[in-house]
Every structure is written in structure tokens, then in C-alpha cells.
Amino acid sequence: MNILSGFVVLYPMIVSLVWIMGAIFFSVQQRQIPLKKPGKGEPEQLVSVLIPAHNEEETLHEVVESVARLTYQKIELILIDDGSVDQTLNVMYELQKQYQSQFPIKVVPIIKNGGKAHALNVGLDSATGEYLLCLDSDSYIDQDALKHMMLEFYNDSNVGAVAGRPVVRNRTTLLGRLQLLEYIGIIDIIKRGQSFITGHITTVSGVIVVYRKKAIKEVHRWTVEALTEDIDMTWKLYSHNWRVAYCPQAVSWILVPEHMNALIRQRRRWARGGLEVLIRNRQLIFTGKLAEQWLLIDMVISNLWALSCFFMIVLYLLTMIFSHALILDGGILFVLTLISIVQFIIGFTSSQRQGYIDWQDLLLLPMYFVFYWVVNLISCITALGSFFLDPKRKGTWASPDRGV
Hints:
This protein is α/β, with parallel strands linked by helices. It has two domains: 2-24 and 287-389, no CATH class; 46-257, Spore Coat Polysaccharide Biosynthesis Protein SpsA, Chain A (Alpha-Beta Complex). Helix content is 55%, strand content 14%. The protein is built from 13 helices and eight strands. The chain has helices at residues 2-32, 60-68, 88-99, 116-126, 145-155, 174-198, 213-218, 229-239, 260-280, 284-287, 290-323, 330-353, 365-389; strands at residues 47-53, 75-82, 105-110, 131-135, 140-141, 159-168, 208-212, 243-254. Strand 2 (75-82), helix 3 (88-99) and strand 3 (105-110) form a beta-alpha-beta unit.
């Protein structure tokens, strides 16, 4: 029991310290070794912008408007309607008329909803560019994002994908603001740390990512059966010796769930998608590169930690009920809190300079720590149950919670 209790406490502490140090050095490296830029007169490569959508009549205008504002101008836009039952397809044709004088726009209708991966595969057939910018239909991409991401391809011919940085834009509720802190203080820090220490990241963000078309075709396109196509594609690229880069300067403003049930469903899908990728790529734990082995082993340990944590919480509750005593180590709690604060400050400092977050959001910090661990623990445990009870579940689309 002491060993299990030590594992539950020490694992998040050690991992947090590792990612914090990696994130610091990642930022230093980016400042001291900037990417080489194309010379004057060098032509831009054509980028095909793929936007798959299912029942997104209310959000399409914004994402297309943001694409039209990109400073990287050699693009074509491909709008893919995946079996929508609202006016999404009609909106796409309206947007085609509105922006066709600025850049080529293709509308690709799909009769039956087959899921995001299937929609991307269909869109790929219409893409003429050698690079594919994939955006979610409810996002808003920063005008300089694509220019930053294309530099990664220019500097390394082995880069198969470049992941951008999602930043929450709907902050009208407490849940939305807590997720803002999570994306700033946890997700971004982890990806920076992974990039520096391993040269890999666990997954691209499907909401904003650029793929090299050659790499996508080499790995036989997106896996239609995958519940999370972005995690699956990341590891397919690794298995074919492609590199995946992280570009935090490439920002996409996203909408997040602002109802707890929708948030839990989203995180459960993420966790289950990670489990599917782990099982599918388990051989890389023994045959993959050291960085890939490290990330996969970390995924295994994370799931073991969730199970152990759940068991220890049940044990503590039983102890409280039958012995009427609460056993908590104040010193350990203080250290965990201190590490979490340091981790958040690093993300906050970077994001505050760029105007992504305000100092008032610091007032939510105590609630944020509880929120992050509770939501992700519940999601992981329920994903494990879902995976073993229904292992053949296939990914399709439903209209998500867009916030209040």
C-alpha cells in the first residue's frame, strides 16, 4: 500500500518537473536558434486547406473568414460536408461565391456521415497542394499561423506534420475559463517539454495541423475506424520515420464545451483514442526509437496511475467512513501545489505577453488544480471501461457543445 501510495503521489510530481524543465529549454532554444526563412523570390508552396464539417452552419463563416485573412496567400480551400442535416452544405456554396475571387474554393458533399477521418480522406482526393492545413470548422486561425508552420517544413525535409497551438476563445462561463487555464498551463507546457526532450509530441492538435501530403499518402491516409484521427495519424507518421513538430506561434482560437457532461464526453473520447493508439502501436515500445518508447511507456504509466489513483481514493473514503479519520500529508500536498503553480506561471507568462490571458484569470487557480485532476481522472477511468466493454466502437460525428 505504501508503494502504491508513493506511486500515486510521485508520478505526477516527477512528470511535471520533467515537462517544466523541457518547456523552459524549448523556449530558450527557439529564441537562440531561430528557423531559417526562405530567401526573397523563393515561391511559396501551395497549401490545401481542408475544413470538414458536420452540422456546422453557424460556425463556418468565421473559420473561412480567418482563412481569408492568412498572410500566407498561396492556398486553396476545400470545404467538406460530411452528411449534414442542417444548412451546412448551402452555407458552403454561399462562402464559395463570396471568396472565390480571393482563392480557389472547392465544395465536396458527402451523402452519409462517415466521421472526420473519412471526410479528410475524401477531401484529400480534391487537394492539389503538397501540404494540407486541416482546421476544425468551429475554429479561428491566427493570420500568421500558416506562415510560421510552413517554416518547419522548409527547415527539415523529414517533417511530416506540424502541430499548432489551440487557445480557448469562449470564456463566458466558469468551465470555459478553467479550460483556458488548462490549455495555457498544461497542454502547451507538455508539448513544449516533449518537443525539447524527445523531439516528438504525443499528438498533434486536430484543430490546427499542417501535413505533408506525401507523408499522408505513405501511411495510407487517415484511419476511418480511429476515434481520434489526430492521435492515430501522429503515430502512423512515427511508424514510418516521419517527424512531427510543434509550433506554439501558430495559434487557432477554439470553442470548448461549457457543460460538464459534454466536457467529460470529449475527454473520454480523447482518452479512449489514446488507448486505441497505444494498443495499435504497442510493438514500438520494443522496436521504436527511444523517444517513441518513452512516450508510449508514459501513456501506459498514465493509465496505471489513473487506476491506482482511483483505488487509493476509494481506500481513503473507506478509511474516513470506518475510522473517522482523514489521513493527508500536508508536505506532499504543498509540494504538488507548488509544482503546479510553477508549471502554470510558465505558460501564463508566455501567453500573457501575447494577450491570450488576463491576470484576473489567476483568481481561478485554486479551483483549476482540482478541476484538471478530477476531470481527467474521471475521463481516463470511464475510457478504460468503454474500451474493454466496447472495443469495436467506431468514430462518427455528432453536433458538439459549442459553449454558451
